[in-house]
């Protein structure tokens, strides 16, 4: 790992505040990054103190005044070069993601590829930031709307996707003419330091103003400060629903904008008309990928009673084949949880499930001994439950999968929708009517609804986000770029008269 850190410019001690090529000195708390893979210390990062925070925000504010005037295609070309640099660093950055966060190496590489993909998307978008034209009711007038940059975009990201979610926001914000201030999770600060160094080199080569991309490493209080800062018109926050409610309240109190991508409690409906072998792959990966620490992780399976027993048996057999261990081994399916706090939440959820009457088909537990070099490895668990169980209503960020039966399609949809969260959902069926009904207004109430694929693994071309307690925000593709800009309606009078709208007369 030493060679990987060296390639990415990470040393034993790192500053956690940066305006680009300038790493701001700070006397803040030292945050030590430990790997959940083996429990070993990776490196230290000095968090941003008050003075560093102010320097970063002030530098970003000044940079915006220049960056917003760069033509969008020129900004897009800088993002294109960032994508090229990410291609160069894909292997070491992917390995760092895997080692610092604990996800499998393939998922680590996949996360960096997702960064590349969103940059490619943003490059094309840089020539497509279009408004509308409208016919005026007044003769000799023309109306249209255009979109302008907002200013500073504050990005608060979570540990489970330590680089990709930042890039979703940053790539779009940059081509829109905004500047970014990133507060990564304090659990994965080194991934953020590596990304900042990569993009800073690209910016320096293109004479991008200092302060267009900024980094602030710190704990919860730093995110709270960003949420309350009137100089940051948009705060994009990814994390728990509890955190999102606090951010949304703080930003809303100052009439700012918030983009919230919060918890998920995602379900797959297994129809009696499903291809069960294909469904099995989607369900298992959805449930155990990233050790159940995705906001799109499959947490509930709603299975038709006619195929319940056969699919249950397939699932239990598949779980016996899972390989748990060091995620840097490409043959491993499941790595560790992020830390001991996550392990405690996992154990508590299992106990609550048992207390409510859940029957475990695949028992959970913490793994110790050879091959498990930290205390963060756990067994993916499967339990039979009832939809009304309290534990099923909440998101546990761990590999626990709940199974329940249904009789009718309407019952399945009601169970699927009957939780506070509304991020991702799927149905496995070869029945066209069921598929279309699931995607209709009377079907899934989630921001993402899939047919014959799982709940996780979204592509960047579509807008990503959910409803209800998931926050309502949309990131990544489609027209998600609009959240990073302000809309302006323009009316031009090219006549020699000044008629008023609605036929109002005002003669002098």
What this model shows, in words?
- The strands form six sheets. The protein has a seven-stranded mixed sheet with strand order 14-15-16-13-12-18-19, sandwiched between helices.
- It is built from 14 helices and 23 strands.
- 36% of the residues lie in helices and 21% in strands.
- The chain starts with a helix and ends in a 15-residue tail after the last strand.
- The model has no long low-confidence stretch (mean pLDDT 97).
- The protein has helices at residues 2-7, 50-67, 72-88, 90-101, 105-125, 164-175, 189-205, 220-228, 241-253, 276-288, 308-320, 340-356, 409-417, 432-438; strands at residues 13-15, 17-18, 30-34, 41-46, 133-135, 141-149, 152-156, 179-183, 213-216, 234-238, 257-261, 266-270, 298-304, 359-362, 381-384, 400-406, 421-422, 424-428, 448-451, 463-464, 467-468, 475-476, 485-493.
- The chain is α/β, with parallel strands linked by helices and 508 residues long.
- Helix 6 (164-175) links the parallel strand 7 (152-156) and strand 8.
- The radius of gyration is 24 Å and the shape is globular.
- It has two domains: 1-262 and 471-489, 3-Layer(aba) Sandwich (Aldehyde Dehydrogenase, Chain A, domain 1); 266-451, Aldehyde Dehydrogenase, Chain A, domain 2, CATH 3.40.309.10.
- CATH class designation of the largest domain: Alpha Beta
Total count of helical runs of at least 4 residues: 14
How big is the Rg? 24 Å
Task: Kindly name the structural category.
Answer: alpha/beta
The CATH topology of the largest domain is given as: Aldehyde Dehydrogenase, Chain A, domain 1
Shape field: globular
Instruction: Give the number of DSSP strands.
Output: 23
Percent range of helical residues: 25-40%
